Every structure is written in structure tokens, then in C-alpha cells.
Hints:
Elements: H1 3-13, H2 24-39, E1 45-48, H3 55-62, E2 66-71, H4 74-86, E3 92-95, E4 108-113, H5 124-137, E5 138-146, H6 151-157, E6 165-170, E7 173-183, E8 189-200, E9 203-214, H7 218-227, E10 234-235
Parallel strand pairs: 1-2, 1-4, 2-3, 4-5, 5-10
Antiparallel strand pairs: 6-7, 7-8, 8-9
Helix pairs in contact: 2-3
EC number: 2.1.1.-
Domain Methyltransferase: 46-142
Keywords: Methyltransferase, Transferase
Amino acid sequence: MPETSVAHFYDELADDYHLIYPDWNASIRRQGDALDALIGQDRAAVLDCSCGIGTQAIGLAMRGHRVIGTDLSPRAAARAAREAARRSLSLRTAVADMRRLPFPDGRFDTVVCADNALPHLLTEQDAHAALAEMHRVLRPSGLLLVSTRPYDDLVRDRPASTPPQVHHVGDGERTVTFQLWHWHDDGEHYDLEHFQLLPAGGEWRVQVRRTTYWALGTPSLWRRAWRSAFRDCVSSAW
Length: 238
């Protein structure tokens, strides 16, 4: 799937992304606290190379870290910057492909690639390129934090869908989010249809967005990280 389709998926989702969380602000704080504990130092220079609308980047900025966020989606990166400004936080954002990061060697103490972003890369060559770029922009003894779905179990079971998530958005209104998964014959890649039902004047507005993932299990992920010259990596999932 062309990289532009991934950008399109998140461009379409950017305005409503926060609605997939029961409480987005609480998730920002929780993920910021969890990542801060893993980083283990004050005012680290952090790159969130898949920042989306800022869930992790804003949480880390709230903890005093010096964060730059990049994303393939222009609309998502722009919203992350706006949301940080609304909270009086400093967060620089830019549009960038994680396979070609626009930063000098050794720029960051920590690189974050969260929320299942790495599996949007559908080939070993692309995954290696992204991990090598993350390694390149890290300082010596820098820290890489990656979170993905628990693909070891998912590849075995090949689920066809996710359970519906129903969240209240105020005034008695609710949103409903669920996904349909269509597995490829290789058992590793799957096409995802992301359904979001949004209240609209007593009716439902239905948004359907589509993208493709590579179900990178933990052994595959760390083999690729090892080949990209990482030796001390930490993975965390929420």
C-alpha cells in the first residue's frame, strides 16, 4: 500500500482521533507518566516520530521533556501542535516519514514510535530503514521506545474484528468505534477497516477509513532492531 494511503487514513481520522479514547486527556497523562518513567531522566530531548495528534508527545511535554513530534499525516501533526499550544506547552511538529527523518545524527536522547505505527511499514526493507533512522538520530546509549499490538497472539488467532468501544462524549451522546480485519493469505498482513459512528442531530454519522498493517510479532521486530544496530531497546505497550 502506498505511503500516501497511510497519510490519508490519518488525515481523515485527525479531527476525531481523540474519540477512540474514553478520556483522551487522561490517556495523555497516563502515557506521558509511563514513558517518563522509562526515560528516567529530566528534560530529555525526545523525538516522537509517529506523533499523531500528540497523545504521547503532549504527555511527555507535560513532564518537562523537550519534545519534537513528526508524523506522515499533515493534519495530525498540525493538530498535535494546536493541542499542545492550547495547554501552553512547547511542542514543535513537522511532517516526516520515519524512514527518512530530517534530523542530524545523535540529536535525541529518546525516540518514541508508539500506537502501532511501525507495522504500517509493510516490508522488511522499510521496517529496517525506519529502525536504522531511529538509531541514527539517537545519541550514544540513547533509548528507543516502541509499542505495537500483541501480534504474537493475533497472528495465531487471526481475529476478524475488534469489540465495539462505546464512549460517552457529553449531553447523553455516545460514539462507537470498531474495526474489521481482513487477513492476507501470507497470514502476516491484514487490511483494516476502521468504523466510527458519531452522533449527528439524533442520527448516526458513519466514518469508514481503510489502511493495511504488517503484523510484526515480537521476535520479528527485535530481529529487525538488532540488524539496525540496536543493542539496548525497551518496548512498552498500553
